[in-house]
Amino acid sequence: MQLRNGEHGYGALTKALHWLTVTAVVAQFAVGWSMEADDAAFDREKDRIDALEDAHEVRFEAEIDRLEEELDAREDNYVADEASGLFGGDGFTDGLSLPEWHVLLGLSIILLALMRVLWRRAGGLPPWAAHLSAGERRLEATLEKALLTMLFVVPATGLILIAAGERWLPLHVATQVLFLAVISIHVGLVLRHTVVRRNRHLARML
Asked: How does this chain sit within the bilayer (predicted)?
């Protein structure tokens, strides 16, 4: 297998960067969804405190206030505190938490995206697959640029969320939704040619 792209198709380095990126993105979404489960646990704990408050409003009022303040502080600072632990080196000695993995994967995705852009400029691209129509080639070119852009944008909005607070959460979620939409179109096009038309389109990246 040749290292560089050429008439033969994609080279070994392009393929390696592609599948490393796929792995990192899948892991990132898995960690993100696990963090959502943790948020649900926070909500359940709040519901428990509310139930306790309703049942023993007067007797346990001071204790309930303390628990609510502690829980709110934990929720507000959860991601930021964990990320600061990662940058401070604590995560590597105590084991990485989900938010720390989330940050680390985000930084890895940005690095992979940068490497892909630089290698794309240095090594060029192979010729289009002969079975792609002119319209499909234009679509694929647009999708490739959109995917590369989102590999920078989604992690960047996550870092902004950590630095600037929860008000940036809608932007981060919106970029994730857009990213998933672009991925879905890209995967759909690949499967259309690989499974339906059986022209081994996926094999070009294997």
From this structure: Multi-pass membrane protein
Q: What is the pTM of this model?
A: 0.76
Tokens 């628990």, residue?
Answer: 67
* Rounded Cα distance, 148 and 140, in Å: 12
- Structure tokens, 14: 């392009």
Q: At what angle do helices 134-164 and 61-88 cross, to 10 degrees?
A: 120
Predicted confidence (pLDDT) per residue in 143-199, tens digit = 999 999 999 999 999 999 888 888 898 999 999 999 999 999 999 999 998 898 888
What are the percentages of helix, strand and coil residues in the chain, rounded to 5? Answer: 80, 0, 15
Q: Give dist(CA 72, CA 56) in Å, integer.
A: 20
Contacts of 15 (CB under 8 A, 6+ apart): 205, 206
CA pair distance 106, 32, nearest whole angstrom: 11
Q: Is the dihedral of CA 183, 188, 189, 190 positive or negative?
A: positive
Sign of the CA dihedral running 80, 86, 87, 89: positive
Number of H helices, E strands in the chain: 6, 0
Contact 152, 31 (CB under 8 A): no
Tell the burial category of 46 from Cβ atoms under 10 Å away from its Cβ (0-12, 13-18, 19+): middle
